[in-house]
Amino acid sequence: MAEKEKPFICYKKGWSLQIVPRNKVGWIALTLWIVSLVPPSMGFTWLMAGEPSEGQAIAYTIGFTLMMLAWGGGMIVWTKNRSEVVDLDELLKLKRELEAKKQRGRGG
Fold first, then answer.
1. Residue 105's pLDDT band (boundaries 50, 70, 90)?
2. At 107, phi and psi to the nearest 5?
3. CA–CA distance, 53 with 1 (Å, rounded to integer)
4. Residue (of 90, 66, 71) closest to 11 by Cα position
5. Which of 33, 56, 60, 83 could share a disulfide with 10, CB 3.0–4.6 Å?
6. Distances in whole angstroms, Cα of residue 2 to Cα of each of 20, 26, 46, 96
7. How many CA atoms lie within 13 A of 26 on its CB side?
8. pLDDT over 70 (residue 1)
9. How far apart are CA 70 and CA 80, in angstroms?
10. How far from the centroid of its chain's Cα atoms is residue 3's Cα?
11. What is the pLDDT of residues 23-66, one digit of tens each?
12. Helix/strand/coil (H, E, C) string of 38-90?
């Protein structure tokens, strides 16, 4: 996938990542990904509303939590793989180098 066609932009600074939609395709993909969370959430709510025993409630909660961790991790990997990555540390380094060259050029 060409950089211009990628639906997300990933801003990277150290270990921090911020992934944002870049265009209409990105917003649609993000919306569909988030909407995919509705059925499992409704199912969990329905199971818990049925007054489960303590053991069942713990099992349902652990299952839902593991599913949410997998869903969130999958979302991060999926969107990052479809992102143009902008390394902010590298951009800041380039900016400082350019400013230093300007200062040297002025004799300052």
1. confident
2. 85, 20
3. 50
4. 90
5. 83
6. 17, 14, 43, 29
7. 18
8. no
9. 15
10. 18
11. 999 999 999 999 999 999 999 999 999 999 999 999 999 999 99
12. HHHHHHHHHHHHCCCCHHHHHHHHHHHHHHHHHHHHHHHHHHHHCEEEEEHHH
